Amino acid sequence: MIPLNFISSRYKVISTPSCHPQLPIEDLDHTEKPRAGLPSNAMSPNAKPEEPDAVVGKLDELREGAEVRGDCESPADQPPPWLDKERFYRAREIFKNHFFSIFFSHLAGLMLIVHIPSMTGPLMSTGNSANIVCLFRRYLSTLVHIRRWYEGDIFNPDDPAHQSITMVRGMHKRVADKINGTPSTCRRRCPAVSQYDMALTQFAFVGLIILHPKHVGLHCSKEDLECLIHFWRGIGYMLGMEDRYNLCNGNLEETVAVCRDIMDSELRPSVQKPQKESTSMSRGIVKAMNSFIIFLSWEAMARFWYEQMDLPCDFPMGIYESTGYWLMRFTFGWLLRFRMFHRFFNFLLRIAVKQALNSKEYYEGYLARNHNITNV
Ligand code: HEM
């Protein structure tokens, strides 16, 4: 367990660990198994001769972004020239019809991506991931932002979705400036919240969906998956990503290939050899969401995904966790083949989120009582 004051010495807390009360949460398959795990030092995509050149080049190019600030200062008031509105707004329909599956994939992506070392520092530095109550606020707020982006119009300056994404871009900028120094003091190496970190976070949101759509009950067409990719390309753009570092600027095959490379060379090794604080954060995120989603546990989620990722599941599972795991298998593997069950689970999740938003204090109190407040 991580005490409240545990923050990597490299990163100073830049806001109090009481989180940020101004949170805007007012109401607000490619089921083919990934290749066997590469050794954690297999960082060079060139080491994989079977990859097409274009993909090797793509991952290399993304990695160059590790030295570049995450926000390229592109204008936030105009859509990108490559925007295909029809495909972008089709993501809204897909989200509406598959809310449960998409929410679950995003949550899984987030609980996994915090294992990548470059993510942990900036997240810890703000104090908003300092304990279970903070994590509850932080990730409920994230859910609300992301839902607005799907449901609204991020390119229309008068739309709440645009205001929300601009606000998040501002949050990233403040954290990055605080850690890196301002652009004038940081000319070359800007390690925190880099363009590559942005691409890795895009992976957290869209990577698992396109690598394993059926595993999360998404039985949709190739075109639909490409609409989701296009949507996340637009999100990346609006958050200040440069086109060449955007994970999502290819078609389905290209994006799947580069996501598989990220899985092999970044995610799997990081999850296999986790830092102490990443594990705590990962567990804390799921525990916080479990306050309003029954049968959700870190162990069940981890087993559900580790098996898919060819990772060992060497953690104990109690009856509650095993039940949760088998329910996940049954729900995503069987029930969600049918549209009526999508509707049913979408409905249940909407109610649960609404309840969590309306009774935040109740859930925060519950978490504070049931988990040591000073520990994640
Ligand atoms: C596509 C890329 C990304 C998306 C979609 C995204 C999404 C979000 C969202 C929705 C919020 C608002 C959370 C809230 O209201 O509390 C947020 C805040 C934040 N994000 Fe990101 N993010 C991305 C990339 C990153 C990266 C690469 C980092 C750092 C390595 C990062 C670190 C943070 C931090 C520190 C905050 C402020 C809230 C806190 O203290 O945790 N984000 N992000």
What does it look like?
- This protein has 376 residues and is an all-alpha fold.
- The chain has one domain.
- The chain is built from 14 helices and no strands.
- The protein has helices at residues 53-64, 85-97, 99-113, 117-125, 132-151, 160-180, 195-211, 222-238, 252-272, 276-290, 298-306, 319-333, 339-358, 360-370.
- Helix 3 crosses helix 7 (195-211) and helix 11 (298-306) packs across helix 12 (319-333).
- The longest helix is centred in the middle third of the chain and has 21 residues, at 160-180.
- The chain is globular and about 50 Å long.
- The site of protoporphyrin IX containing FE has 25 residues, from helix 4, helix 5, helix 6, helix 7 and helix 8.
Topology:
Elements: H1 53-64, H2 85-97, H3 99-113, H4 117-125, H5 132-151, H6 160-180, H7 195-211, H8 222-238, H9 252-272, H10 276-290, H11 298-306, H12 319-333, H13 339-358, H14 360-370
Helix pairs in contact: 1-9, 2-8, 3-7, 3-10, 5-6, 5-10, 5-14, 7-8, 7-9, 11-12
Bound molecules: protoporphyrin IX containing FE.
The site of protoporphyrin IX containing FE (HEM) has 25 residues, from helix 4, helix 5, helix 6, helix 7 and helix 8.
Question: Largest sheet, described in full?
Answer: none
- H/E topology pattern: HHHHHHHHHHHHHH
Helix content: 55-70%
The number of distinct helices, counting runs of at least 4 residues, comes to 14
What characteristic shape results from the CA principal axes? globular
Number of domain modules = 1
Bound molecules: protoporphyrin IX containing FE
Rounded Rg: 19 Å
Structural class: mainly alpha
Beta-strand percentage? under 5%
Q: For the terminal residues, how far apart are their CA atoms?
A: 6 Å
User: Could you tell me the number of beta strands?
Assistant: 0
Low-confidence stretches: 1-17, 20-28, 31-51
Overall average pLDDT:
86
Region (Disordered): 22-53
Protein name: ER-bound oxygenase mpaB/mpaB'/Rubber oxygenase catalytic domain-containing protein
GO molecular function, one term: oxidoreductase activity
Transmembrane segments: 97-116
